[in-house]
Amino acid sequence: MDIFIEISKGTSIKYEYKEGKLKVDRFLNVPFAYPFNYGYIPNTICDDGDEIDAVVICEQPLHPCSYIKCKPIGVLKTVDEAGEDNKFIFVPD
What we know:
The protein has no helices and nine strands. By secondary structure, the protein is mostly beta strands. The protein has a single domain (2-92), classed as Alpha-Beta Complex (Inorganic Pyrophosphatase). The strands form three sheets. Strands 1-4-5-9-6 form a five-stranded mixed β-barrel. Strands 2-3 form a two-stranded antiparallel ribbon. Strands 7-8 form a two-stranded antiparallel ribbon. The chain starts with a strand and ends with a strand. The mean pLDDT is 93.
């Protein structure tokens, strides 16, 4: 399954890919940085209207706007202000 990467492991900048552009959404509080690569499963929609969130666990930071073939290994069940917001966990395939 292909995963689209929005945010690289190790960065403190939160990006979102909207309307064909990678946009800076916000800067995270220092010293926090993403401990994993973060993106979504293309061509999916979940209850909040966004694509299904994906966490890709690997040693290397992946470039934003890249795709990587992955296999699922689990799900992190979370809730935000809009309701259920699960994160599906992947590793490179």
